[in-house]
Specification:
The complex is a heterodimer of chains A (66) and B (537). Chain A is built from four helices and no strands. With 66 residues, chain A is mainly alpha-helical. The radius of gyration of chain A is 20 Å and the shape is elongated. Chain B has 537 residues and is of the alpha+beta class. Helix content of chain B is 38%, strand content 15%. Chain B has 15 helices and 20 strands. Chain B is globular, with a radius of gyration of 23 Å.
Chain lengths: 66, 537
């Protein structure tokens, strides 16, 4: 569902017919757009993750709760 | 049949000050409470209702008809005793938490509890900050006021970061540190006392064992101490050891028997659900609460499906450990079913029950439609549910990392993705990053959440509580779920207003009283005498 949302934004419905003729079949476009989206997402998350994963995860120690 | 009933949620947040590795968790938790108080002080001038009224608390009463003696209880079960921080603990962390909003004096002690203008409670529970939402009647409102709690603690975290001399405190809306410790995200549902407790147990156990399929938050690591590599559906599943019991911190039971209704005890029971994961996804949270309320309606009407698991705790863990959702578990009649099958059995029963009742309200239709659609999606391909289910969103992200970087499940970066999914800071929390990219389906708007931070729900006693705190901050000196305590110059004794009927004290009943009252004296007088006594909670 999210992938569809992303693709519909920015693609004007009117342009759809003309672009279809020059682009590869839908399945391939979908797959490559998906890959591109994932790469982009991972790039963003690389920049957000705490810098020393091992140390950070080891330091996350909680006391008991309910 | 309806999803509507009096209910609420409780979230214990994981707490960490990365630059103070050995910080006392209770002190860090109290910093959150005091920092939030500081953000309110900026505008409000006075803090009200900071004292919790423990009069009606009874954490050792068991729904099976007995009470555990205090001496026999685990100290963590005594939740009716206010926590205290001693000077030594505070000194260890440098500036005391009360310094977050001024000098620490006798009149300005470290706050361990607050009752908020939206009707919620924010307090230190053991070694975690906890937000308990106000009572609501609609599942969507339960999600809304639960999310308001995330906004409350975020405001507190931001305040601490701005204060010189304080190390930043991070909060995580998860349920385990992956080192043997778990902390809860609880739900509360009001049910009529007339429903036999045994019917609740038999009707709910197979449902709770399988509910993680639609509402688990996902976890990297198997076993309470992360003994085995891998991914599982639930944060909490490995921490449950028994089917029914009173404890919440040790020997955790699938069905908790604490009988502390916080309401008229002869009429109501409060079902205290401790088995859920803390959800970030609004859809997961909505379905977790909505479907549970529906199953309770079926139990009340005697139409819950008759399924019984041979080994509920084993089934809970086996289902959690298989993200392909193909794991079979055994029923007492010998049938082998998956977690999805169990959910379908419950859904079919709820749909039939609703049809037989001749239609339902819009909230119930919404839950039934979402539940049915999600089960269909999960059956086709679990990964297609990434936009609405936390465990799937998390798994999809983890799989992408594994594919790109060839990581084993034991890799620290995957554990970090798991942890950081629940980071409450929108710029750091991976749930929030996914949501910002439009990859998580929303149920609420950000504007609604902001409003719910300071406004109570209209349709329960939380409206009365929240508005008392907002209108009379000087005179309200204490509160609890079922009371508000006023201190008035004209009266020698404190005036305790009981609020034991959760469906009174609503906007419809008390808005005029609030509008007509000139001040707190007038308000209490009208409530206790005069013609307005009829609307008293």
């Amino acid at each position: 569902m999210a992938t569809q949302d992303r693709k519909t934004t920015g693609t004007h419905p009117v342009e759809e017919e003309e672009t279809e003729a020059v682009t590869p079949p839908a399945a391939e476009t979908e797959a490559s757009a998906e890959t591109e989206g994932v790469d982009d997402l991972l790039d963003e998350i690389d920049g957000v993750l705490e810098s020393n994963a091992e140390e950070f995860v080891r330091g996350f120690i909680q006391k008991g709760g309910q | 049949m309806t999803v509507r009933r009096v209910m609420g949620t409780e979230t214990e947040y994981g707490v960490l000050a990365p630059s103070l590795p050995s910080a006392n968790a209770t002190v860090l938790s109290s910093q959150i409470i005091n920092a939030y108080a500081a953000t309110l002080r900026t505008g409000a001038g006075n803090l009200s209702g900071t004292r919790w009224d423990y009069t009606d608390e009874a954490p050792l009463n068991d729904a099976r008809g007995f009470a555990v003696p205090r001496a026999a209880a685990d100290p963590t079960q005594l939740t009716d005793e206010p926590p205290v921080l001693d000077a030594e603990q505070i000194a260890m962390e440098g500036s005391g938490p009360a310094a977050l909003y001024g000098e620490q004096t006798q009149d300005n002690p470290v706050l361990m509890n607050m009752v908020l203008g939206n009707g919620a409670r924010l307090y230190v529970d053991h070694a975690h900050p906890e937000y308990s939402s106000p009572e609501v009647t609609r599942p969507r409102d339960a999600v809304l006021w639960d999310k308001a709690g995330d906004a409350v603690v975020l405001a507190a975290m931001r305040h601490i970061t701005r204060m010189p001399g304080f190390a930043p405190v991070n909060l995580y809306k998860n349920n385990t540190d992956n080192k043997g410790v778990s902390y809860g995200s609880h739900e509360n549902y009001l049910v009529p006392r007339s429903v036999p407790f045994g019917a609740l147990v038999s009707g709910l156990v197979p449902f709770f064992v399988s509910r993680q399929v639609i509402a688990g938050s996902g976890r990297v690591g198997i076993g309470t101490n992360n003994q085995r590599q891998g991914f599982q559906l639930s944060q909490r599943a490995d921490f449950f050891e028994t089917e029914v019991g009173l404890e919440t911190t040790i020997r955790r039971p699938i069905i908790n028997t604490r009988d502390e209704p916080h309401a008229v005890a002869e009429k109501y029971r409060r079902l205290h659900v401790i088995i859920g994961d803390a959800n970030l996804s609004e859809v997961s949270a909505l379905l977790k609460i909505g479907t549970t309320s529906l199953v309770l309606s079926m139990i009340e009407a005697g139409t819950a499906p008759a399924v019984e698991l041979r080994d509920p705790v084993g089934a809970l863990q086996a289902i959690s450990h298989d993200p392909s959702l193909e794991q079979l578990v055994e029923l007492t009649d010998g049938r082998m079913v998956t977690g999805l099958d169990l959910q379908e059995i419950y859904f079919e029963a709820a749909a039939a029950h609703s049809r037989a009742g001749g239609g339902t309200d819009a909230d119930t239709e919404d839950i039934l439609a979402r539940w049915s659609a999600l089960l269909g999606t999960l059956k086709r391909d679990p990964l297609e549910a990434a936009a609405s289910v936390d465990w799937v969103a998390k798994l999809k992200l983890l799989q992408a990392y594994r594919e790109r970087d060839g990581l084993a499940w034991s890799d620290a970066r995957l554990h970090l993705v798991d942890l950081q999914y629940s980071d409450m800071r929108p710029e750091k929390g991976l749930y929030y990053r996914l949501a910002a990219r439009g990859q998580m389906e929303r149920v609420l708007t950000d504007e609604e959440i902001v409003r719910a931070v300071s406004s109570p729900p209209d349709d329960t006693r939380a409206y009365f509580r929240g508005n008392c705190l907002k209108r009379f901050p000087k005179e309200v000196i204490g509160a609890s779920w079922d009371s508000i305590i006023f201190e008035l110059p004209s009266r020698r004794r404190l005036q305790r207003i009981p609020t034991r009927e959760p469906l009174r004290g609503t906007r419809a009943l008390t808005e005029e009283l609030f509008n007509a009252s000139a001040d707190a004296e007038d308000f209490v007088t009208r409530l206790l005498t005069g013609s307005d006594a009829a609307v008293a909670p």
